[in-house]
Amino acid sequence: MNGTSLDIKNDQLEKLRELFPEVFTEGKIDWEKLKASLGEDINFNNERYVLNWAGKSEAFKILQQSTTDTLIPSPEESINFDTTQNVFIEGENLRVLKALQKSYYGKIKCIIIDPPYNTGSDSFIYPDKFSEKKEDYQKRVGDKDEEGYMMKEGLFHKNSKDSGHYHSNWLNMMYPRLFLARNLMRDDGVIFVHIDDNEVHNLRLMMNEIFGEENFIAVFPWRKRTAKSDVPFGVSQDYEWIIAFTKTNYNAGIDIDRKYFQTDDFPNDRWRLSDLTTQRSEEERQNSAFEMVDPKTGKKYPHNPKRVWGVSRDTFQSYYDKGKIVFPDDYDFLNISTPAYRVFESEDKAKALKKYGSEDAKKAVSTFLSKEVGMSEDGNKEIVDLFGQKIFSFPKPVNLIKYFLNTINESDYIILDFFAGSGSTAQAIIELNKKDGGNRKFILTQLPELCDEKSEAFKAGFKSIADISKARIRKVIERINEPTTIPKEKKKGRKQNTLDLGLGDDSVVAQSNAKTQDHAIDLGFKVFKVAPSSFKIWRSDEINGENLTSQLDVFTNPVREGSEKENMLYELMLKAGYELTSSVDLDKKNLFYRINNDELIIALEKLDKGIVETIISLKPKKVITLDNLFAGNDQLKTNTVLQMKDAGIDFKTI
To answer: What is the pTM of this model?
Structure first.
């Protein structure tokens, strides 16, 4: 009981909701729907099938806004910075996705994300005012404390179910990120998005709009827990969902082992047996409902009325003459009671090559996820196993991520996870590479969101979620580098999982199978952080009498005070379209950087006639330098421009 009087308005709204639940949208009355329900003025404006929400137009504006943000390297937090192909980016993921657009457009094979579920208690970044200016939003998402960690006050918003824009807020957060993520995907790329019942319906419709309904692959139901008893309506919601879409075309498949026979009658091609019946009844295929006779023995084999033969009376002899039909008495080693269909290994390889681009045997992927993929509790155990305590809530089990990665019919590609959380995706990738000798690379992005001071993570010394992610990757790498990690008694009692899942005994991280004994897998990662540009930005929209002088200074001295050479190097690489893992070599004599075996050269220290001639002799495709390195020598600059042009080199100055 409280001391306030009855809220007349809310009481009336609740009564109306009981009578007309269908007219409420995000807690508010949709007057068009109410009129239609009452049989009056049934005429919806712009009547068409479309997903719409408050702030959708603003979401479009946000994704279309360009960025001057860059990513600066942090070698001291990295492992094998100069050689690794793995990347961890610390920063707000919308800013990161925009920064990656040029360098990674169309290069990502797989995206796998576990975004906020919008349970009513989630906090995430979204414009809380749909009329919020670009500058205000950028200022807010840039809020950091003295040590560079993202502050929750003013940045994160708790999206309560009581909010008038409960679903809209979540959609506004997700739409621009998914849209930009699609740009980064290869045409044959795939995206897997984890979600629960709160937004699964909206997510599916939103992804239909972004990716195209024709590119929907499947919804995978994942059992996250065993049933609970104290639940609303007496129903335990034990499942979450993984929605999969492709960009244009994608063929999933799981490796299978097939048993082939080698016989004297077919010395040049091994073969296997397949079912010779179909799922058609004799009513459906009368010409295939016949008694099959073995030409050698005269034995008769009646048809099954519910599953007739896969050949007809007319085609039987043709198939038999080609050796495609095997009878029980043909080979002593066979244990069959009815005729079977012979499939040659060469046929399997040709079919696999056409469909998957590889001759390896595959089978279709089922949306049924077996218990081997694990539940939430398994994810918790993996965290405790690495850190000694539960420092992160609800991490996805590593085997679940491995399952989806194993449906991809190649092992050398880039995986992006821009809601990295505890870093489960990185662990799955590193362990899979160890297991099969693959060369999967990851790009993980995580906001440096402050850990609650009362949390186990904070007590364990972690200031932010990003710190947990990086620590997990380091621990997984350390574990793989150890000679062994599995006690004999534990190893002995564990049962190997099914071969086609590729899950196996995966704390087997420590063991090397035959495929990987001589394979040096990538046990490193490069850390980058979102930061403002190292270069001054020309802001024509802000020019007035007071700041004209400072704006003109952009032309004479474009580098921001305090900018470091390495930060400028990676910013120019990124904005020139080069990946963060491109090879970088410093010419120690001339102090210029050679990227990707001289494909790109960047000069940031000095420039003279001799250096220009050296650069041209290396035959790069592109050269970028600071304009002020010419030190006012117009003749040197003019000659450099002409020489570069004659050599067919794309020359740019900053």
So the answer is: 0.78
